[in-house]
Amino acid sequence: MNIKKWSALIAAGVLAASLTLFGCSSGGDQGSTTSASGTDAGYTLINDGKLTVAASLDFPPFENLNGDKPEGFAVDLMGLLAEELGLEVNYLPSTKFDTIVPLVQTGGKTDVGVSSFTITDKRLQQVDFTDTYCNVNQSITVRSDSGITDVSQLEGKKIGAQTGTTGYEWAAENIKDAEVTGYDEMTAVFAALDSGQIDAVSVDLPVANYYVKSYTDCQVIKEIPTGEQYAIAVSKENPELTKALNKALQAVRDNGKYDELVAKWLE
Ligand code: ARG
């Protein structure tokens, strides 16, 4: 590798490291938009007065189920955004992750998809995204007794990830000869690691950090500076809703409530 590439990589690493610490802090000055609000806003809703949300509720600390109640950073954030818009939030029953973007795209079932969606070129062809609300990196988790301490040792090994995620893609593209298995639910991926069906998990770092707390024999061995940005998925047919959500996002950044959520869930 030439020097230019290395310094770019180092710069990316430094940037990523600072994002890890402050990835979800405020200070984003994402452009906001029109002054539209409430029912005159020009957007459409599945149910009047309600913001209907599709989510895969298996991704703590962002969106998870506490009994049958959705909870997490993004769930609270959606509550705040809806409040700004004068709407109630209505979470649909937990939805399989890789079906949510198509669901938003097709229309008729949900107003938004909120599932720690990393903005990707492929998804941008299917849906619109709001301004970003969080920055994260990928990570690799293994069993503590596995003797695996570096990604290079994963060559030819079994990796697990949630189907349709950036973690799945990262593993498939970057780990030589890896056998990557996709699972519907994040919980199943960690259960498979714990029981020895797979050798490593590839997932967004804050989520890995959360899961290893309940699987004490597992540890995160690597942060991968992918520099991903989370945003809310909205139908391309409903651009005024994207605008309204961006305006609400800016408002909760400005009034300090966004920072309270960061402190509550992510620090
Ligand atoms: N950020 C990753 C992606 O966009 C993983 C998101 C998984 N979300 C979830 N709620 N299970 O592909």
From TrEMBL:
Task: Look up the record and report any one GO term of the cellular component aspect.
Answer: membrane
* Residues annotated as domain Solute-binding protein family 3/N-terminal: 50-267
Keywords assigned:
Signal
Q: Name one GO molecular function term.
A: ligand-gated monoatomic ion channel activity
Do you know which Pfam families this protein is assigned to? Answer: SBP_bac_3
Question: Would you indicate the residue range of the signal peptide?
Answer: 1-23
Q: Which residues form the Ionotropic glutamate receptor C-terminal domain?
A: 50-267
Note the PROSITE patterns from the entry.
Answer: PROKAR_LIPOPROTEIN (PS51257)
Read off the PANTHER family from this record: ARGININE-BINDING EXTRACELLULAR PROTEIN ARTP, MEMBRANE-BOUND LYTIC MUREIN TRANSGLYCOSYLASE F
Put simply, this protein is called Transporter substrate-binding domain-containing protein
Task: Give the organism the record lists.
Answer: Eggerthella guodeyinii
